[in-house]
Amino acid sequence: MEQAADQLDIAAIVNGDSKEFAKLVDMYKVMVFTIAQRMMKNREEAEEVSQDSFIKVYRSLKKFKGDSRLSTWIYRITYNTCLDRIKKYQKEQGNIPIEEVNGQAVAEMGNALKEMELKERSLMVKNCIEKLSSSDAAILTLFYLEERDLKELAKILGLTVNTAKVRLFRARTRLAVILRKEMEPETISSYEG
Amino acid sequence: MKDNEHLEKLMDEILQDAPLEQPPHDFTHSVIKRIEEERVAALSYRPIMPKWAIVTIVIVLVILASWGIFGGDLASISEPRYAKLVSLMDSWFSESLPVVKFSNKTVYTVLVIAVMILIQTTALKRLFDRRFTSA
């Protein structure tokens, strides 16, 4: 992605070249929309927030100094735009309590998921992510979009690396709890059979 | 600790497979359209001077005009000086203006310059409009 980003002519965009900016939008729209959709939990709002984020990117591209990856900078703008919208409409979904997920439960879930069809598994993961709070969904999404780079994740969230690590661990555990609840014991045993 | 590692591994596996959300097919077009609209709006409505400067200038002009009309004494409305000014202007137009004579050469020159300015203004306006809308 960053190699493709190198081909972008940032100076041309700053000078008002819409065609070059359209290339940037095409390059990042899926990731930006994914972050927005997972945080806003609503397709229409996600579209609006994604558009707003790209407009902010366009307006402030001249301030981009290149001290982080372009993707990190764009995701940070998207994350903050989503947070602003959530704060404005007080839409933050509460976090579910963290429960301990032991090794056996993890193994059972893992086996059941492996047996599932890819399509079915994707749908289940998507549903579980939807049940996470906006901040947990954002942390998990950003971590994997940034190729599991904790430093970049911390930059986007405006946190220290250690705090980002703790939040990531909590988000993973909450996702596992939701996944376990979503997969009834019967479902797990039917796939294990 | 080992449980955490297993959990991390499982989450890595499933989240890397998690499908990304697809925006509507005309998403890029919508973003570019909004940017163009904003740019045109900014070009059309951005004032040359900030609001506070315009307000200050208007206030100063009103004060100066009042001072000129009322002779520095804003209370003397009963005997306004502007009536005198109006009558003076009237006489200037009726007495002095007919005396001024322009040669035919001057009149034609001014006329040609006016036509040239008119053509150039129209051409320049079209040029700038096209440049800003196609950028």
TrEMBL record, chain A:
The keyword DNA-binding applies. Keywords: DNA-binding, Sigma factor, Transcription, Transcription regulation. Gene3D superfamilies: 1.10.1740.10, Winged helix-like DNA-binding domain superfamily/Winged helix DNA-binding domain. Residues 24-91 form the RNA polymerase sigma-70 region domain. It comes from the Bacteria. NCBIfam families: sigma70-ECF (TIGR02937). Belongs to the sigma-70 factor family. ECF subfamily. This is Sigma-70 family RNA polymerase sigma factor. It comes from Flagellimonas nanhaiensis.
TrEMBL record, chain B:
It comes from the Bacteria. The chain crosses the membrane at residues 52-70, 106-124. Keywords: Membrane, Transmembrane, Transmembrane helix. This is Uncharacterized protein. It comes from Flagellimonas nanhaiensis.
